[in-house]
Amino acid sequence: MQKRLWSISEYPFQPERHLYYETIFALGNGYLGSRANFEEGLEGQTPATLVHGVYNHAPGMLVPELVNFPNWTGLTLTVDGTPFHLRTKALDLLKPTGGVLLGYKRTLHMDVALLRREALFRAESGGTVKVIFERFVSLADVHVMAQRLKVIAIDGAPRVEILAWIDAEVTNNGVSHWTNLQTTAEADQITVSGKTGQSPYRMGIASRLISPQAVNAASHATQPRLTSVIQLDKDGTVTIDKLTAIYTSRDSDDPLGSAQAKIQEATAIGYDKLYQAHTAAWADHWRDSDVIIEGDEQAQIALRFTMYHVLIAAPQHDDDVSIGAKTLSGFGYKGHVFWDTELFILPPLTLTQPEIARNLLMYRYKRLPGARHKAQANGYEGAMYPWESTDTGEETTPQWSDPQPDGTRIRIWTGDNEQHISTDIAYAIMQYWHWTGDTEFMIRYGAEIVLDTAVFWGSRVELKGDRYELTMQIGPDEYHENINNSVFVNRMTVWHLEQALQLIDWLQQHAPDQARTLTEQLGLTPARLDHWRDVIARMYLPFDAEQQRHIQFDGFFEMEYIPVPHYEPRVGGVWPMLGHHRALQSQVIKQADVVMLMALLGDQVGSREVMLNNWHTYYPRTDHGSSLSPAIHAWVAARLGLMDDAEYMFEHAAMIDLQDNKGNVRDGIHGAASGGLWQAVVFGFCGLTIDHGDLKTDPKLPDHWKSVTFTVYYQGQRRQITVRHPVGNPVGATGS
Amino acid sequence: MQKRLWSISEYPFQPERHLYYETIFALGNGYLGSRANFEEGLEGQTPATLVHGVYNHAPGMLVPELVNFPNWTGLTLTVDGTPFHLRTKALDLLKPTGGVLLGYKRTLHMDVALLRREALFRAESGGTVKVIFERFVSLADVHVMAQRLKVIAIDGAPRVEILAWIDAEVTNNGVSHWTNLQTTAEADQITVSGKTGQSPYRMGIASRLISPQAVNAASHATQPRLTSVIQLDKDGTVTIDKLTAIYTSRDSDDPLGSAQAKIQEATAIGYDKLYQAHTAAWADHWRDSDVIIEGDEQAQIALRFTMYHVLIAAPQHDDDVSIGAKTLSGFGYKGHVFWDTELFILPPLTLTQPEIARNLLMYRYKRLPGARHKAQANGYEGAMYPWESTDTGEETTPQWSDPQPDGTRIRIWTGDNEQHISTDIAYAIMQYWHWTGDTEFMIRYGAEIVLDTAVFWGSRVELKGDRYELTMQIGPDEYHENINNSVFVNRMTVWHLEQALQLIDWLQQHAPDQARTLTEQLGLTPARLDHWRDVIARMYLPFDAEQQRHIQFDGFFEMEYIPVPHYEPRVGGVWPMLGHHRALQSQVIKQADVVMLMALLGDQVGSREVMLNNWHTYYPRTDHGSSLSPAIHAWVAARLGLMDDAEYMFEHAAMIDLQDNKGNVRDGIHGAASGGLWQAVVFGFCGLTIDHGDLKTDPKLPDHWKSVTFTVYYQGQRRQITVRHPVGNPVGATGS
Q: Which chain A positions have a beta carbon within 8 Å of B571's beta carbon?
């Protein structure tokens, strides 16, 4: 591996951007995610460790959220009595009152998922040390977190006191979730345990400090602490490790006992061997999930960065959790699961880490009861998935926004009317099946989802005159709420019912028992299937015959036209510039909607002429207020051969988190944009599809790209594919 | 050209870094340089336009400095009465009290030397405009500066007032240089003229505003102004140009008259054609001076960025000026000319723009009188160039520093004792001669410098016992002042005298008249030449026979050893961390010194064993407190085949300004580091040398570099050279 395109550095120190780096340098292992706060603390920082599946609904809050775990990263030192810190101001470097930071560099090594910080620090005494912090969250043993602190005396022979602690006084932006907090501090070990207030989760955390000198423990109600004092020689070095284990009642009946046993085991193994196992696990991950782009280093780094963030959030060993919109890297969207997972984050996993993809789909299977509740509560049949989902599987979309600048709250309609999520999940299941050939999953689990959500749509459609309609919908473009006959929703519903009918045929042939069971359980009567056929035949798809283009929804073109391309440069969407009220009544589109349909269904949407007309209509009306938008636009533009647009949108997508071009990276990584970037490359630029039982590529690469190499699993087989420009390699792809 | 590696962007807006961008986005054309201040102004910004050769010594200042010219960039607008500004805070975007910036992007297009800024701005009225500022400083007609302001109504139909002005109330960080300031404002034109207070320079500036609507002029003692009011239609656009001409009494007897005539001419030509001529001139520049690196985009951008800054400071038409240490991009070092020019900035110009290199050498030729004054004043013969040089050619190094944190000033000895500058100039002349074959220059001008500076050294050396010594010197490593027997200085003196003797032989053969003239004028008697031969034979070169390495100067290894590599990461050198007093008495080295000698003289310094010993001794003792250091280290490490060190030092060098890794970019571009980077690539990695009358390369490229392509002129012939790794191309280079 060429290491230089595998890391991202902060150098020199950028204190004003610490919340940006706290997100982009986050660590994780698919069990938990942990933000890159500073070990010693910094005013205004927002340390967070989020563990998949552990939600709590705190009193007074509208909805449950992923719970911030006690901060296990606490680790610092004093140098001749001066506490280490990151303040660079000193009147006199030689006599620095209160100490001074002389140098700083922090690097995320994506190849090995290691966060490393080096600092130069001078104490008030004049004693100067080089301090190196390393930490990783083991991918090989997901309950283990490891930290290493190396201190080098570079001037003087300072006395160093090491302090390690766990901080249980944590909140989610001020909201407390833990009760029954208990701590211990004994010998070289500290522990914290507790229980979430409303939900039934218990957790236990145990940390040990491994020092060449004696370790002392100090009890504290919420911040148990370990210390160790080291007298450094001139030019001397000391290395101290802190190991931490986390368990929850989701993994163990006795989380604290398990954490204590694990920390005992981890201590015996030691930092070096833990790190070795961790890096070996990452080598496996990258062998399958890396994409190599020759000819565009910015794209290369962005793809690794986004895939890194998908991988650290992807549950390897748990089929009862899914990935929230902001992964596990921040409090944004409270850890809720949206369609982002199925249509954006899942595809790269389906193709490169199919076992993890299966876990994520099982999360939905296990939440069919919640989806059935929602359908029933809304007066429909079948399964209607919630727009926002947590552990319970019930709808958890808040109904009202946080207060706006003028103090009012905005009604949020997505939980009521953004119903396409059910079809998005069905799409992900069909995609998983086609790529993996995992018929066992399909028969036992997948089919039930696809069919019961089809049942929902059959009950949801409205016959108006001689056609079927869908009113009061929200499509992907959330600027337009409660609209009628979204071409995206209507067309995807048709697709969904078609798939369901084909799936029933297939089941009857290949799994007749299950076909019978499902027919009975879900009520797949001949009358219902006939109804589906009728819906397919008579669904209304708004189309402008004169202009030969789709109409995003009824009345779209009657609204105010806004010249969106003029609203650049900006950070974020046009929405806040227009105001909610006006945006709703304008043609400004938040994100790929008709264009999303073209990504998902390709040629099925219409002729090339219609596709181009759609592009030229909707692209200049879209403000990409959603981070989900640019990658899908890049994908579709590449397929249409509109390479300037494709490159522009790709670069926009690639920089969403790295350049913070939405302005909100502090709240967490844009998970969907991350997964979308991979799709823009593989499905968009490389044109990978399944064709008559084999893989086909159809390269439309940016001019300056020389090649793209990626790996996919197809029908259980690992395939490495290199794509180049058609010239010189007319086939466009070589499989191996 | 692949445009995407030709630009640097600021996006989103980074107000806290505005002084960084003010430097790195500077424009220039070799006649003047102009910082990238905002047209409308911003608190704390430091607009500066510096014109080559125009120095002034203000009352109370220790030394003269390049004079800040009136700020010609003033150009802004009001939107429905709200002044345009860069503040992004507004409680309510829809009713923004005082207006609000909605979006921002600024790009330096290095291929065409164009600075472009786009902004979205909403006025208090709600009227919203997109504003595009462009400006360039014409390379085709160096007296002309052009600005374009395009305003697009994107919401509402606002009334826009355009304001253009020249601001004559400018200072150099508070120091005023102008007297007799006069302004005019009439019709569509404003002018400023004035005279420097101490020195004899006069200047004249004239600006015109070209608007589709009436232009009004408003007189003001120091800020004459032009305005034009435009009522925009909904979705309407207006384009306004401001053209400015600058002359000084260095170019014209009547600077104001010339500026007025030029602005008349430029207005007739118009912005578009001015821009066309400008970009054509830049295409010529880049055709010769671009270096294409395949396989390292960061290096590619850095090389273009550094060469851009060399080119914008390089006088095309003036052989009486030279380039200061901070080019024309900031007030640092007051525009003084150091050895930075001859050994760092000149070589890329000598090889790629030989006519400009000749101008820079002529600057030194014309200042031989000053060098002779200095020799005489110090009791020596011949020519002793000043360490810091301005227009006069007299020594202008200040004797005391600005106050330190403790209030004391430090005595600066470089003007007294950093005498190697004379040899550095001789080196640059010999290099120019060998590469260009410009014997006319050599006979008429170059020889006199090389020989008269040799005369200086002959008078400067001290016979002590049976050897010659040089005491009270400062070598490139300025942390060690007034030391004895710098191996760099002593060895370069030997080289210098050798060159002088050979040059006399050559002159006698090829230009006997000039040989006679110079022999007489400079007193090149047989006795003097014998003395030189004796110096060459008996010069003391400190050498550690046991360790087989050079000793930087007498007593170097007796001083305190500091583990410099431990002092990382840091911004800047170790010097401020040690304090002046201790640094002087330690083995910490500021910059390449023995290593610089190895760069300049290569194999002549010693065996490969000695060279490696020198490297391993001095590299870990060097803190690169000078920006001149890393590129030279990269060059030498590459030649020694130490590729890890070479790459590390190259990256350090490449990022000095782009990453601000010295922490002082606000004061101006590091000109020497910029020129050094090109040398690290061409002389270091590519190993370009003249060998038996032809060019030879000896590639030692970083692993990930695929090829390097560059152009040089050799003996008047343009040669494009591509270098690859020796494998597969054992010759290493192909000339064409």
A: 12, 103
d(CA B266, CA B113): 19
Helix ranges (H only) for B353-486 are 354-365, 368-377, 414-417, 421-436, 439-441, 447-460
Contact B16 A12 (CB under 8 A): no
Q: How buried is residue A729: exposed, middle or buried, by Cβ count under 10 Å (0-12/13-18/19+)? A: middle
Q: pTM for this one?
A: 0.96
Residue B165 — φ and ψ, nearest 5°?
-155, 165
Catalytic residue among B478, B481, B647, B651: B478
* Nearest of A317, A356, A316, A360 to residue A338 by alpha carbon: A360
Q: Is the dihedral of CA B681, B682, B688, B689 positive or negative?
A: negative
Q: What is the pLDDT of residues B678-696, one digit of tens each?
A: 999 999 999 999 999 999 9
Q: In whole angstroms, what is the distance from residue B691 CA to residue B613 CA?
A: 26
A705: nearest Cα among A614, A643, A626, A631:
A643
CA neighbor of B300 nearest in space, from B572, B116, B114, B111 = B111
Distances (CA, A) of A689 to A421, A450, A498: 23, 22, 20
Helix, strand, or coil here: A35?
Answer: coil
Q: In angstroms, how far is the first alpha carbon of chain B from the final one?
A: 20
Which segments of B214-336 does DSSP mark as H helices, in order? Answer: 255-269, 271-289, 297-313
ipTM score of complex = 0.94
- Which amino acids of A are annotated catalytic? 478
Of A300, A392, A325, give the one whose Cα is nearest residue A64.
A392
Q: Which residues contact A181 (CB under 8 A, 6 or more apart)?
A: A168, A192, A193, A194, A221, A222
Nearest Cα to Cα of residue B107 among B95, B99, B118, B94: B118
Q: The tokens 């929850």 sit on which residue? A: A248
A406–chain B Cβ distance below 8 A for any pair? yes
Alpha-carbon distance of B382 to B419, in angstroms, equals 13
Task: Return the residue matching tokens 């000695």.
Answer: B610
Query: Are residues B130 and A568, on separate chains, in Cβ contact within 8 Å?
Result: yes
Walk me through the domains of chain B, giving residue ranges and CATH numbers: 3-285 (2.70.98.40), 291-365+624-736 (no CATH), 367-548+561-588 (1.50.10.10)
A393 Rama class: left (phi>0) / alpha (psi -120 to 50) / beta: left
Q: How many CB atoms lie within 10 A of CB A707?
A: 16
Judge if the upstream peptide bond of residue A12 is cis by omega within 30 degrees of 0: yes
Number of Cβ within a 10 Å radius of residue B594: 31
pLDDT along chain B (736 residues), means of 10: 84 96 98 98 97 97 97 98 95 92 97 98 97 98 98 97 98 97 98 98 98 98 98 96 98 98 98 98 98 97 98 98 98 98 98 98 98 98 98 96 84 95 98 98 98 98 98 97 97 98 98 98 98 98 98 98 94 90 94 98 98 98 97 98 98 96 95 98 98 97 97 98 78 40
**What does the buried/exposed string (b/e) look like for B457-477 if buried means 16 or more CB atoms within 10 Å of the residue's CB?**
bbbbbeeeeebbbbeebbbbb
Measured over the CA atoms of residue B443, residue B446, residue B447 and residue B452, the dihedral's sign is: positive
Q: Report the 10 Å Cβ neighbour count for B140.
A: 17
Cβ atoms within 10 Å of A93's Cβ, excluding its own = 17
Interface of A with B in 639-668 (CB under 8 A): 659-661, 663
Which residues share a beta bridge with A713? Answer: A718
Inter-axis angle of helices B297-313 and B671-679, to 10 degrees?
Answer: 130
Q: Which of A383, A402, A418 is nearest to A333 (CA)?
A: A402
Pair of tokens at residue A224: 């148990």
B105: closest chain A residue by CA: A569
